[in-house]
Amino acid sequence: MNTTADVFLENLRKNPACPHVVIAWGEEEYFKKAIGKAFREKAFASGEEATEWSFQRDFELEALREAINSVPFFGGQNWVVLEDPKILAEKEKTGSRRAGVKGKKKGSTSVDELIRLLTDVPDYAFVYCICGKLDKRQSFYKTMSKEAPVVECSPLRPYQLQPWLRTQADSYGARFTPGAMNLIQEYVSAADPVPLLFLQQEIGKIALYAGERKLWQADDVTQMFSQLPEISGFALGNAVEEKKLDKVLVLLQEEKKKNGSEGLSALILRLFASLRRLLQVKEMMGKGAQQEAVASALKMHPYAVKLAMQHSHLFSVASLQTCMVRLARLAAESRQGGRTWARLEEVLIALINQR
Questions:
Q1: 155: preceding bond cis by omega (within 30 degrees)
Q2: CA 4 – CA 35 distance, rounded (Å)
């Protein structure tokens, strides 16, 4: 069964039955951790003791066979975790050079043997297989997707974040106000994809900060996120978009003091991305596009689009393009020993002072 992480987690919560094999693959580590935690809690819901086995990258299939099929002492159960099996990265071929696999059929590959093990798991074993990538054209994916949940763990984009935020707040018996949600989405709009593990950690801090208060406001978000280095960069980009020169100069000095030369490149990239988005919005507006169409085309949250549309009126297309060229040149020259923070200040002042 091919499914996505959110759908799998919901089905696992609702259905009384628990699968004995789950395969999670993709780039988003948050979902892999969440699936592993939920799967294990479901498998051992009645408090049974589990014999734990862990296999990473390169391992012998005979050892995996023993882990899955060995009957635990005192009637317990087996919890087996496979992380990035190396054999799945190998090209499919006839025959196998791996040794130590009993009962192997002539002409079968190591992948074939792994499939046999995972499609014949006893009732007292639960296997969680975690992969970075899976080739949908190969036999492992095609076969296992018919036999067990194969869960794709794809990153979330900022415009997809609201349902996830609601789920996070629900886990604390709380909820975000619309303003708080919009602010979080603004903060992460420059991060594509969204760093969910990091964001989950910060939401935990909001829960501690709010305490018994279960309606989380924009001020709660600001209190927690304002301490992070990434947020000062966001605030600087926002001040540039709003043409608030005094605020830009203050924030620029804070960035220089906190991050020094090491943080300059990342800051230039964030500013470049912010201006590029502003330019895209302005160009689409020039062609008559409305907020909904802009949000759909640029995969942006509607609130972020609304702000960008407001800010875009403060700039000409030429001024945005000129500043982006200057930022790109500054990024290149700074790596060759050229002027850095002072030049960035000049570039931003020139942009803000243009009519």
A1: no
A2: 11
β-bridge partners, 128: 22, 81
Q: 250 or 337, which is more confident?
A: 250
CA 320 remoteness from chain centre:
30
Specify whether the CB–CB gap between 241 and 309 falls below 8 A: no
Determine the Cα–Cα distance for residues 284 and 271; give it in Å rounded to an integer: 20
Name the residue type at position 278: L
What DSSP state is assigned to residue 58? Answer: S
Of the chain, the percentage scoring pLDDT greater than 70 comes to 89
Between the alpha carbon of residue 2 and those of residues 141, 146, 197, the distances in Å are: 9, 8, 24
- Number of C-beta neighbours around residue 275 at 10 A: 21
pLDDT in tens, 13-41: 999 999 999 999 999 999 999 999 999 99
Rounded Cα distance, 110 and 87, in Å: 7
| Alpha carbon of residue 292 to chain centroid | 25
